[in-house]
């Protein structure tokens, strides 16, 4: 015997992924956003200049995630949105309901001549705890899961190679929980509402970030990257990470402007 309330809670338990047939239907109209990055001044919607590359990351609440990436040298623009679920052009309220399957994510558009995907992976792994499953810090729900959503085969190969390397590094530091990060070909990315874009840089924003960096570094690229991708090596040196690498609460304390390095 199940009560209707109990059945509803089971169907829409935000700690587990909803089935596609139970997801909200969404809508055909895309979210209207300002096509100019509030800090960097560059477009946040395609088309982007030739030669730039794109990847999407989820590390929990997208406010802090976005700021961590937009400050990196070589990043052209960032935007927050929703992906890896089922609901077309979902709203924030719908995503928070757990009934879309979407993750809160950040689209990163970057210049590979200035910053490598390996650098972005280091920021990703070190800026949150990828073992927390459906949540991050104080935030719980499927929309706060850890994820890498790749737009090229090289990105996916490197992401998949870096995952066991970071798992080993965590184990070496005494952290035994398994990484729960999903690594997928990038599904459709739906822009979040305009007020969420570059939220932490805007006047009156709430200085909030619940990411839980582990304090464990990604091992050197040469230890985990496939040999045929040696040309994808990091461009940011150890000195950068020592000075500007993720720390608990760091995106709240740091300025909004991009890091000038060296």
TrEMBL record:
Highest taxon in the source lineage:
Eukaryota
Keyword Transmembrane appears in the UniProt entry: no
Q: Does the keyword Metal-binding apply?
A: no
Q: Which residues form the Peptide methionine sulphoxide reductase MsrA domain?
A: 55-209
Task: Kindly state which keywords UniProt assigns to this record, in alphabetical order.
Answer: Oxidoreductase
The membrane spanning regions, by residue number, are none
Query: What's the Enzyme Commission number for this chain?
Result: 1.8.4.11
Give the record's GO biological process terms: cellular response to oxidative stress
Family annotation (Pfam families): PMSR (PF01625)
According to UniProt, the reaction catalysed is: [thioredoxin]-disulfide + L-methionine + H2O = L-methionine (S)-S-oxide + [thioredoxin]-dithiol; L-methionyl-[protein] + [thioredoxin]-disulfide + H2O = L-methionyl-(S)-S-oxide-[protein] + [thioredoxin]-dithiol
Its GO CC terms are: cytoplasm
GO MF, any single term: peptide-methionine (S)-S-oxide reductase activity
Q: What does this protein do?
A: Has an important function as a repair enzyme for proteins that have been inactivated by oxidation. Catalyzes the reversible oxidation-reduction of methionine sulfoxide in proteins to methionine.
Homology family: Belongs to the MsrA Met sulfoxide reductase family.
Query: What is the name attached to this protein's record?
Result: Mitochondrial peptide methionine sulfoxide reductase
